[in-house]
Amino acid sequence: MRANAASSEPEAQLTAVDAAQMAVLRHLASRRSVSASALAEPGPDRVTLDAMLTIAARVPDHKKLAPWRFIVIEGEARTRFGAMLAETCAANEPEASDIRHEIERGRFLRAPTVVAVVSSPVSHPAAPEWEQVLSAGAVCLNLLHAASVYSFGAQWITEWYAYDEAVRGAFGLTAKERIAGFIYIGTPRERPTERERPELAAITTFPNGPVA
Predict the structure, then answer these.
(1) For a disulfide at 184, which of 8, 36, 166, 207, Cβ 3.0-4.6 Å?
(2) pTM value?
(3) Is residue 162 helix, strand or coil?
(4) 116: which strand partners?
(5) Residue 156 contacts by C-beta under 8 Å, 6 or more apart in sequence?
(6) Who's near 29: CB < 8 A, 6+ residues apart?
(7) Per-domain residue ranges for the chain?
(8) What is the SS3 assignment for 1-61?
(9) In 3-state terms, what secondary structure has residue 124?
(10) Could you tell me the sign of the dihedral formed by the alpha carbons of 43, 151, 141, 124, in that order?
């Protein structure tokens, strides 16, 4: 009996590994962003958000510089930063309508949790800035994956305010820092539909023969 149990154990483990791998593959093959306008309460609690941000930060990072950081906007902070967006919009575009002001005021209210992923490159002779910027982009995508695994919906957005100098100043960004994206996170109110994807053959090449 012991021999039979021992011989079946590796097979059971292999089946479990295969199931876990298939779950990951299904997620990667079907992941969809959920529009910020389709997100609702509740958002992640602090323990869950910490776990999600830990996963988000587990990305390729040449020389271990951690050239990114997080700014979490939730609760009343969403209203305060929304008021700042409306004021900035009014200053930038005096002709903007009251309706436009209200849209800007409600930007961060579209989801219970908004995480600004800040690209914060570090001067290093062996780590080009471009690599560090790409690493920040990987953080954004990892956060989308983490949100999905924890059964939340999420969307990676920049929009005009990610590039506005006044907004960047209000978030305390340095001259070298940029907002890689605002990740809106919440409970999805609807299941996102699939969208058109590029044909693999149109975006893939296999160079053959000598280099010209």
Answers:
(1) 36
(2) 0.88
(3) helix
(4) 71, 182
(5) 33, 140, 141, 143, 144, 181, 182, 183
(6) none
(7) 33-76+110-190
(8) CHHHHHHHHHHHHHHHHHHHHHHHHHHHHHCCCCCHHHEECCCCCHHHHHHHHHHHCCCCC
(9) coil
(10) positive
DSSP code at position 194: P
136-187, pLDDT tens digit by residue?
A: 999 999 999 999 999 999 999 999 999 999 999 999 999 999 999 999 999 9
Q: For residues 54-80, give the mean pLDDT.
A: 97
Closest CA to 36 of 178, 162, 167, 189: 189
Spatial neighbors of 42 by CB under 8 A, at least 6 apart, are 112, 186, 187
CATH class of 33-76+110-190: alpha beta
pLDDT for the residue 132: 98
Rounded (to 5) percent helix, strand, coil in the chain: 50, 15, 35
